[in-house]
Specification:
By secondary structure, the protein is mainly beta. The protein contains 3 helices and 29 strands. It has helices spanning about 65-75, 75-85, 330-335, and strands at about 30, 45, 60, 65, 90, 100-105, 110-115, 120-125, 135, 145-150, 155, 160-170, 170-180, 185-190, 195-200, 205-210, 220-225, 240, 245-250, 260-265, 275-280, 285-290, 295-300, 310-315, 330, 340-345, 350-355, 365-370, 370-380.
């Protein structure tokens, strides 16, 4: 049985728009590509592994659902089975996805965030027809991402400004905990193993919410809220932890704020801004930055006016080159083109791209060999 927050474990648990992965940095010293003379002082950084969370200092504790409360009070296996008796394992009933935003794998299970169907689905077989997958969550409205550390699964409930916490109990995914009032339209969530922290981004308030649990429990705590004032009021779709720093993509703003057309690089711990990279208007409505080998791959949803006619994927060796229009547009060369590419995630040596507006081409897989995209396959 997968232990829930009611049970003690034996050690530290480590593992895993208004539409939705992220590179996890290693524990060793890493280098940030030298791009400008002003960035020279930030040429390398090391993420310091966090001490186990002791549960004593936090901003808020999760709210237990009714099932979560029953599990908290369970004294034996019979009580646990009684608590989850009303939860059915429901097979997915759609044969197509509606604006999928994220795909990932935890252990041997695949998860797809099917945003406009308001659900997260799962399967042990990536190639199974969609109506043979199962519904993990139908409680969120337009969710965008899911992240896990192997014990809990966090889903951003975008349109309800919530974060939902699931646990796997006796082969059923159970919604056990909820956090309310998480910024405005949170829709990018990752777990970083080095810092042992779940990060959730509030897409229009410039706030990064941090969540942790102790090593002997899965009860979640909101431990910190960090803010970048420059991004308050700007729609920023995601962040990426690359080489120990956190990067926020450029976004769009109703007020035509100049800050919207910048990629911002910050210290992960403090969110102190270390560098800004100005980007052209036509690619300013970015979705995500992914560092693969020696290049940054950037998915773009719109230009600064919000037009999806500019949706594409670009590639550059230097973020500083973007301001001069020095980048390679690779979308139509490798992925048909004409849709709106969204988040890129990776599992083992394979990368996955979600996109919308293209019927029959909503999730792709590909690999990168010697800085070149290979093995491009349309999965769904």
């Amino acid at each position: 049985m997968k232990k829930t927050f009611l049970y003690k474990t034996t050690g530290l648990i480590l593992a895993i728009s208004m539409l939705t992965g992220c590179q996890i940095a290693g524990a060793d010293s890493v280098s940030v590509p030298t791009e400008t003379s002003s960035q020279a002082s930030f040429a390398s950084t090391t993420l310091t592994p966090s001490s186990p969370f002791d549960g004593t200092t936090y901003i808020a504790e999760s709210n237990l659902t009714s099932v979560g409360q029953e599990l908290a009070e369970a004294e034996d296996e019979v009580d646990i089975e009684d608590a989850i008796a009303g939860i059915d394992v429901v097979q997915n009933y759609d044969t197509e996805l509606s604006v999928p935003t994220y795909i990932t794998r935890q252990d041997d299970t695949w998860f797809i965030v099917d945003c406009y169907h308001n659900r997260v689905i799962y399967s042990d077989d990536l190639n199974a027809p969609l109506d043979e997958w199962y519904i993990m969550s139908g409680d969120a409205t337009q969710p965008h991402t899911i992240a896990s550390d192997g014990s809990v699964y966090m889903i951003d409930d975008t349109e309800n400004n919530r974060v939902l916490v699931y646990e796997k109990v006796n082969d059923k995914f159970v919604h056990t905990q909820t956090f309310y009032d998480i910024g405005n339209r949170p829709h990018y969530t990752i777990y970083n193993e080095i810092t042992d922290t779940f990060y959730v981004w509030s897409s229009t308030t410039g706030e990064l919410y941090c969540f942790r649990h102790t090593s002997d429990s899965t009860r979640m705590y909101l431990t910190d809220i960090k803010k970048i004032n420059d991004l308050d009021g700007i729609y920023v779709r995601s962040f990426s932890i690359i080489d120990g720093y956190i990067y926020f993509v450029s976004g769009v703003s109703d007020t035509d704020s100049a800050e919207a057309s910048n990629i911002i690089m910050c210290d992960l711990d403090t969110l102190e801004i270390k560098e800004k990279y100005t980007v052209p208007a036509e690619v300013a409505g970015m979705v995500q930055i992914t560092k693969i080998q020696d290049y940054y791959y950037i998915s773009v949803s719109t230009d600064t006016t919000g037009s999806q006619d500019y949706a594409t994927i670009i590639k550059t060796a230097s973020l500083s080159d973007l301001s001069q229009g020095k980048y390679e547009d690779i979308y139509s060369e490798y992925f048909i083109g004409g849709g709106t590419p969204y988040y890129i995630s990776n599992v083992d040596d394979t990368y996955f791209l979600t996109e919308h507006r293209l019927k029959g081409h909503s999730i792709w897989s590909f690999k990168v060999t010697d800085n070149s995209i290979t093995d491009v396959t349309s999965i769904f």
